[in-house]
From TrEMBL, chain A:
Keywords: Transferase. Belongs to the GST superfamily. Residues 88-214 form the GST C-terminal domain. Residues 4-83 form the GST N-terminal domain. It catalyses: RX + glutathione = an S-substituted glutathione + a halide anion + H(+). It is an enzyme of class 2 (transferase). It comes from the Eukaryota. PROSITE patterns: GST_CTER (PS50405), GST_NTER (PS50404). SUPFAM superfamilies: GST C-terminal domain-like (SSF47616), Thioredoxin-like (SSF52833). InterPro entries: Glutathione-S-Trfase_C-like, Glutathione-S-Trfase_C_sf, Glutathione_S-Trfase, Glutathione_S-Trfase_N, GST_C, GST_C_Tau, Omega/Tau-like, Thioredoxin-like_sf. Pfam families: GST_C, GST_N. Its EC number is 2.5.1.18. This is glutathione transferase. It comes from Stylosanthes scabra.
Automatic annotation (TrEMBL), chain B:
CDD domains: GST_C_Tau, GST_N_Tau. InterPro entries: Glutathione-S-Trfase_C-like, Glutathione-S-Trfase_C_sf, Glutathione_S-Trfase, Glutathione_S-Trfase_N, GST_C, GST_C_Tau, Omega/Tau-like, Thioredoxin-like_sf. It comes from Stylosanthes scabra. Keywords: Transferase. This is glutathione transferase. It comes from the Eukaryota.
Amino acid sequence: MDGDSVKLIGFWASPPVLRVKWALALKGIEYQYVEEDLSNKSDMLLNYNPVYKKVPVLVHQGKPLAESLLILEYIDETWKQNPLLPHSPYERAHARFWSKFVDDKCVPTVIAAFSKGGEEQQKAAEEARENLKMLEVGLEGKRFFGGDKIGFVDIAIGWLPYWIGIVEEIVGMNLIDADSMPKLNSWFHAFLDIPIIKECMPPHDKLLNHTKAFLQVLTSSSSP
Amino acid sequence: MSKANNVILFGFGVSPFCGRVKVALAEKGVSYEEREEDLCGGKSEQLLKYNPIYQKVPVLLHDGKPVLESSIIVTYIDEVWPSNPLLPNCAYERAKARFWTDYIDKKVFDTARGIWLSKGGEEQEVAKKDFIEILKQLEEALGEKDFFGGDSFGYVDVIAIPLTTWFSACEKFGGFKVEDHCPKISAWTKRCFQRPTVVKSLPDPENVYQFTIQFRKMHGL
């Protein structure tokens, strides 16, 4: 039975774990969730992901998988209901491209924008805004990246504006706003409005406090 | 060979990322037009138009529509021309193939650059140590199989084999031999180079070495 054979090892505040939770929820897959203490990683996690020792790890019928974007592809191929990736190879290539773009380009520049100081921060913030603005190309006049319904890209990148909003509160800097990125802003609000998406999100205040601590570590390790 | 399907590859001779796409197209028997970009002199308007975000090669243009990022392009090729499949059938094995592709992409080329584009000294020694550890990890993934794909040449083999054309430059600048540390990787490399599709698609390691010499000069090394 699916419920017995799907296990997700995660951490409540982790965006890559959230991606997998969304995918499992959208497909209606029952699973056992195991919360990992990242400051004291379990033997189970180290056995299942010896290369990176990170969450998420999806274990299906005893076989472990790591790296959230490829876990999403595995989920989509194994459980065919509510497909996440589009049908055509060209559209699929696009979906993979935008998901990778967020991880490779947006995330590092957003982190730099929030963790650096002075002039470096201004420069990083500008770069982050440019990268985020580019995401509007991927939306191409659609309601969601997946079209009328959410799809692979939406659940791959939907966490980012939420996290950015949290950090904007802490740092007092604005990266996404309705004026400069109207399409991205609309998409973000429409995405978060979806009940199944909202249900999986970590609580706002808990995440705010956790992120404050995380940012402190980041800024103290990047200062001279 | 299937008839040319209006397939154009914007590439650069020694690029291992372009090499992947060439090997994939050759494995599928797809004819294509190659457009060599002058990455050092000035990128073409077409490249900048089709890849405005990264402005990099490879770009595959199929019936006028661009596909970007080498591993995404290889997957696209596998999906559009499904004969002689590169990815395995089983979803779990496919996920493993994607995992090792992602690992290779994160680690191999950048670490290698730390060897061939280095002044030497401590920095280069660290890069060498990391590089050998990465290759040993890949040896573990290969295990006793002939190819990463198992009995047959597959997706991860396509992704990884072009990078080996840069090993000679690393060995010469770093003063080591991959074969001494990772004999299985060396054996796998030789096995892959028995395939005509690989041989005709990839540059001579000597040409790659000459390129690194020129590139180093451009960077004052």
